[in-house]
Amino acid sequence: MKRHREKRYTLNDYIPMAQVVFRHNRDQAGVRSALRRLRDSFLADMYIDDIERSDIALYANELVRLGLSDGRILHVLSKLNKVLRHADDMGLLPQGRPKYQHTRHSRRREYEVTPEEEVELLRGLRRYGREFEQFAQFLLYTGGRYSEVTHLKWADWQDEAVTFKITKSGKPRTLPLYRPAREALIEAREQRPHHAGPFALFKKHRIFLEPWHEVADSMGIDDDDFTPHCLRHTCITRLVRSGMPLMKVKEWGGWSSLVMVQRYSHLEAARDLRTATKDYAIDSERLIA
After folding, report:
1. Which among 7, 140, 153, 169 is least surrounded, fewest beta carbons within 10 Å?
2. For 144, phi and psi rounded to 5 degrees?
3. Could you tell me the residue ranges of all domains in the chain?
């Protein structure tokens, strides 16, 4: 049974009291940014025990109107959910934590880079410095997330393999290196041996994004999906097309479940059908009844 509530708290008042739930988050800057956004919202002055599912839905709609991506909206709402869960555990929500599930509406981050675009992209980034080309090449041939790659230390690279220790799931994963990714590391070590890691200089996204957008403009690409994250999507797409089973793709991409991998299942099915067409050809000779 929940204890009697001696005091009512607004969301703004309660957020500092719930900081304990975020202490293990690796992206503390992201946590602070999301909590600031919540404290600037109309929810901030509401009593936490008055916040209902409809209020959260209205707030999500407001974030959509402001132009936030689905990923960013989910990030903010997940922080709100943790704060309310903490309040619920403390017995401050008599009706329990309000449940709200935001649905992704965009297809953001689904851009696939063609081989021709890859050549042009890397050539364009090279004009801003070899480190820009190396970073994009490494992202493209490992499928690593932006933050995973920028947090790499030199000690995380062992000749033919690399270990991402700072990951979204919190679990490290080791990947074998394709030749272009390994070459990018070799060149990076020659140029920046005293840096904390091969691509630590890009932890501030702006440093990489400004040249990225300028190269995109020069390539004539006007697509919101053309972000550095599309390099990861392209890598995974190529792995599936090459024949890697989805369970192995899941391990490669660092997903905790197969849900996120299912969007590539149609590629696996198409490949299997092409193989079946070759094995069971019916156009090699005319069938005569």
Report:
1. 7
2. -70, 150
3. 11-89, 115-263
Contact 145, 168 (CB under 8 A): yes
pLDDT, one tens digit per residue, over 242-252 is 989 999 999 99
Pairing of the two strands 173-176 and 161-164:
antiparallel
User: What CATH class has 115-263?
Assistant: mainly alpha
Write phi, then psi, for 158 (nearest 5 degrees).
Answer: -120, 80
Supply 219's token pair.
């390539």
Amino acid at 152: L
Alpha helix segments (H runs only) across 127-177: 130-142, 146-150
Residue for token pair 């990714």: 181
Q: Which residue has the higher pLDDT, 269 or 229?
A: 229
pLDDT tens digits, residue range 18-45? 999 888 776 788 888 899 999 999 999 9
pTM metric for this prediction: 0.65
Which residues 6+ apart lie within 8 Å of 182 measured at CB? 160
